[in-house]
Input
Amino acid sequence: MELFENIAVCVTRGKVNQASAYPPDLRGQDGVFELVRDALANGVAPSDILTKGLMVGMNEIGQKFSRNEAFVPDLLMAAKAMTAGMDQLKPAFESGAAQHRGTFVVGTVKGDLHDIGKNLVRMMMEGAGYRVIDLGVDVSPEKFVAAVQENPGCIVGLSALLTTTMINMETITKAVKEVAPATVVAVGGAPLTQEFCDKIGADAYSADPQGLIDWLSSRN
Output
């Protein structure tokens, strides 16, 4: 359907709304905001707008980022466009008219104040259809455990940029697994490796957000 393709293209290109000057070749054209607004007004199902339009666009920019064909500014613009659509869909999700794929709890671990990577993961996971609970930075094991207990069945994402703080991931992973052994714990950040992930007992490691999304999709 052309509507969904247009929404996906606007997300990938970072076209927020008609007034936005970026990207220059789409100046004056409808963006994600107008396309989603009109789709809802015409009775298109919110879940279809999400899965066939917004998520397709975010997946495309995520794949390009993984292949080094797009960069952080491109991801940020795509996420901004995605948000323009998601803000209009939220009432439907909150009322239960549309379903999320699951809940994702994310935070930068205790001692680490870096949040760019964590924020990218949050935006990409929202774009993939997950309800995201962002705990922020410098997050203690206790705060992660509390979030897991409040959101049974959630997926936990741990972010760290420093070698001195990535060791805190092990403490958090163990604390989470003690209260909810079946909880999927995913880890990411510049200094991390699959070997480290295995060593601390986490379930998944990815070098970029799209890798995590692909891994989660492969399990369903």
